[in-house]
Amino acid sequence: MEERYSNMMNIPTTSEGSRKAVYYYVKPTIENCKVTFADGSVYWEKVLYKDKRLWFSSEKDNLYLDEACTKLSNVTRKEKIEQCKKAGLI
């Protein structure tokens, strides 16, 4: 199969489409997300990779205490937002 290059950053594409090549190029650079709330508290959200559909997202309501996302927090994202609203910060 002959390799050709897309216009974006000389990423090799295959017959399966350039979206797949871009996804696998970007995937190693994606890390878990740091979340800072209005009250100054800092948590982390875990990034999930969906190789079958070539996209990634974060877990819905889970917050973690460490960057590696191994220690689950006792509060969810939704609860933390409600706490900030009740405190008048949002």
Walk me through what this model shows.
The chain has 90 residues and is an alpha+beta fold. It folds into two domains: 1-30, no CATH class; 33-90, no CATH class. It contains two helices and six strands; from the N terminus they run ββαββββα. It has helices at residues 18-26, 77-86; strands at 4-5, 12-13, 33-36, 42-45, 47-50, 55-58. The strands form three sheets. The chain has a two-stranded antiparallel ribbon. Strands 3-4 form a two-stranded antiparallel ribbon. β1 (4-5) and β2 (12-13) form a beta hairpin. The protein is elongated, with a radius of gyration of 18 Å. The model has no long low-confidence stretch (mean pLDDT 81).
The global form is: elongated
Counting structural domains, the number is 2
Largest sheet: number of strands, sense, barrel closure: 2 strands, antiparallel
Strand content: 15-25%
Could you name the ranges where pLDDT drops below 50 across 5 or more consecutive residues? none
Gyration radius, rounded: 18 Å
Annotation, overall tally of beta strands: 6
Structural class: alpha+beta
